[in-house]
Design brief:
The chain has about 400 residues and is mainly beta. Helix content is about 10%, strand content about 50%. The protein has 4 helices and 18 strands. A 16-stranded antiparallel beta sheet has the order 1-2-3-4-5-6-7-8-9-10-11-14-15-16-17-18, with no helix packed on it. A hairpin with a 3-residue loop joins strand 1 and strand 2. It is globular and about 60 Å long. The N terminus is likely disordered.
Length: about 400
């Protein structure tokens, strides 16, 4: 299982409006047209007085210009104490603090960087915290992303495969550990990013007391496990705004190779492919599509398999109830912007897990899901939404809360 998800990145355009200071340039001619005045009155409109007035107006103009530039160049903070009601982790709160860096007008085609911290506290004893950053360097020629998370999670394991997940027998577990992830990508022609990844982590999984009937116990229960991998990533993102995309697409492929030669207890491979497409129906309506594939090779621990319901793929399922060597899922979401910073979405999809890549389309093994959600805009500048989704799956109902769109 994952310890803590990192914040996603965004792309937006920040426009800088220039301010002009109009100084009076015809004062001398206007004075010449006036009737002769008393010497006392003339002294009140002396050149020194006129220069002082011009200086005062110029200073006010500069202050307004600085104020405008400061406003346009300012980044955006995102603060949200998110409630969580999870069938996997219980009820609690996920406090999040994030900052999106500004983009100057002359470089508005670049992508802003994101840094953030998050936590996890639930009533079943799960605790954790995480630090993350996604930085675009050297005029977005490089992307550097890094995450560290530490904590303990209490959750139920149903066993590997569709049959065990469908049986509903729970194995209550506690997993304590930490994980560190870093990647560095370089932009190449056609706006692709390619590069390497590194993952290292350790955990201890223990079985919690229970009087219920349980599924088979995995061999890695009760063992301290170190996992370490080198990987690669290829991605292309054509969305003009990554927080709330109105158009464009995302293509991303990752491969992580865990090996005992790197200090990992298990040797296995994990591959993931994501394709997202966005279509504007109007200025306030968007249709978003997501396709996700996951494959695992070698001899992974149970939590190294493809996990259905994690990372919003698909919503309506307890993360970890269905997991296996392969996973395929697809979903469609309709997004509507409402007045007063609110929004509304409706979504639906279908997927499956399987021990082999040729066993996805068994009709009685398909896992459909769908639901609706409410959005509230936390940052108008970047259109960052607070997301809450109500979803129904094959077995149960879920309620999820997060920052940013589901995909």
């Amino acid at each position: 299982m994952f310890l803590l998800s990192c914040m996603g990145t965004c792309l937006c355009f920040v426009k800088l409006a220039s301010a002009e200071v109009n100084l009076p340039i015809e004062q001398s001619s206007s004075v010449e047209l006036q009737a002769p005045q008393d010497p006392t009155q003339q002294s009140l409109s002396s050149p020194s007085t006129e220069k002082a007035e011009q200086k005062s107006e110029a200073e006010e103009g500069k202050k307004e210009k600085k104020k405008k530039i400061k406003s346009d160049h300012a980044g955006s903070f995102v603060v949200a104490p998110l409630p969580i009601v999870s069938p996997a982790l219980g009820a609690g709160i996920v406090p999040i603090l994030g900052y999106i860096t500004p983009i100057p007008a002359k470089d508005r085609t670049l992508e802003p960087s994101v840094v953030g911290v998050g936590g996890l506290i639930t009533n079943d004893g799960s605790r954790g915290f995480g630090l993350g950053a996604d930085l675009y360097l050297d005029k977005a020629r490089y992307e550097l992303e890094s995450v560290y998370a530490h904590g303990n999670l209490n959750y139920n394991l149903y066993g590997e495969g569709f049959v065990n997940g469908n049986a509903g027998l729970k194995l209550p577990l506690e997993q304590r550990g930490q994980i560190f992830f870093i990647k560095l990508l370089h932009r190449i022609p056609w706006d692709f990013y390619v590069g390497g990844r590194f993952i290292t982590g350790s955990s201890l999984i223990t079985l919690k007391p229970t009087f219920e009937k349980i599924p088979p116990i995995p061999p890695d229960i009760g063992l301290h496990t170190d996992l370490r991998a080198l990987g690669m990533e290829v991605s292309r993102d054509s969305r003009p705004n990554r927080f709330y995309p109105l158009k464009g697409s995302v293509i991303d492929f990752t491969g992580d190779f865990f090996a005992q030669d790197l200090g990992s207890k298990y040797s296995f491979q994990s591959y993931k492919f994501t394709f997202n497409k966005y279509l504007s129906l109007s200025d306030k309506q968007v249709l978003a599509y997501n396709l996700y594939w996951c494959g695992t090779g070698g001899s992974p621990p149970f939590y190294g398999n493809c996990i259905y319901g994690a990372n919003n793929i698909l919503r309506g399922y307890t993360a970890g109830r269905y997991l296996d060597r392969y996973m395929l899922a697809t979903q469609l979401e309709y997004r509507l912007v409402l007045p007063w910073k609110f929004g509304l979405v409706g979504f639906g999809g279908i997927g499956a897990v399987a021990p082999g890549s040729d066993q996805f389309f068994r009709a009685n093994h398909l896992l459909p899901g769908g639901g609706t959600g409410i959005r509230y805009m936390l940052s108008k500048k970047y259109h960052v939404n607070l997301r809450t989704d109500f979803a129904w799956g094959k077995d149960n109902f879920t309620w999820g809360v997060g920052v940013g769109e589901a995909f």
